[in-house]
TrEMBL record:
Gene3D superfamilies: Hypothetical protein af1432
Top EC category: hydrolase
Name recorded for this polypeptide: HD-GYP domain-containing protein
HD-GYP domain: residues covered: 113-309
GO molecular function annotations of the record: hydrolase activity
Record flagged with keyword Ubl conjugation: no
Keyword Acyltransferase appears in the UniProt entry: no
UniProt organism field: Aquibacillus rhizosphaerae
Amino acid sequence: MRLVATKTIREGSELAKTIYNDNGQALIQRDTKLTKRMLKRLQHLGVTYAYIKDAFTEDIMIKPPIPEELRIEAIQMVKTSFADIQKQGTNKNPYLFEKTSNRMADMVSSIVSEVKNQDEVISILSDILISDDYIFNHSINVTIYALALATELKLPAKKIEQIGLGSMLHDVGKVFIPEPILNKRNRLTNHEFDIIKTHSEEGFNFLRKSSAVPLLVAHCAYQHHERLDGSGYPRGLIGNEIHTFGKLLAVSDVFDAVTSNRVYRDAMLPHEGLEILYSGADSLFDREMVEAFRKTIAVYPNGITVELSDGRVGIVVKQNKNLFERPVIRILKEFDEDVAPYDIDLAVVLNVMIVNCDLSVADKI
């Protein structure tokens, strides 16, 4: 299978992975031949890329970090839980929220088990799921990224469970933001953005009053927008004033935000998301966190088309552990000429490197 920009997919191409909505309903089934209407619909929904079938890449497999059924179940649970919290308002029923937090803790345990048993790095999380409610999909994606990062950092099991629950609840304060502002598609005014920014403190104040969650979980909501140089919010904390969980969540939150499909912009690819993080390392983000995070994700996901420094073009076949920027490539073109496919391992062939993997590169094949 190949990862291709939806705006460049040719009519008649066969879909290689089923596309679901966040209710678990299949919108377009695997093996479906895509029509012009389907492709326009995907673009309208903000789907930047999709996997299609290709005769030269039938053996390329994409393994999700957690089963899609579990991910959809987790999204639905967060959606239901946030709706319940919104109905209760700040005068929450402690018993009801205790039940909510217990369900979330159980879900975190299930996700932790899946992430720890995952031999492969995390590929793109927004590739086959269309969500009408970004916040819920984002909450689960951030949880997966944060748990993978916490595991890479070798944090104690108890702290990993706490960061998982904190990640799932990091945006809970958004349920207290007026929906017209929260869901506004046009540019926010300065006043509206100031209201959006209150979600960190609103979430913290809600969670800290609950005996059902540790205070550190509340601080995940409080500090995930803090930045090392003091430019973050709500408190403008600097350096080590920010808790480890806050630094960890900042990396996971920003990476998912920029690599997710949004109605107002295309999703970035993982290497572009990493460039955002590295550009802010030491000033906005903890460099150790960024370096560790890079080891948990596929910088160049399986199935993506890449161009090498010597002009060859091919598709990523598989990852090399601990050398994720140098995967195995299936060469399909040399000097703009089609060639019989063959694989090269960039961990072995060191005199070439990937110079381009914009989704438009796929047009060269």
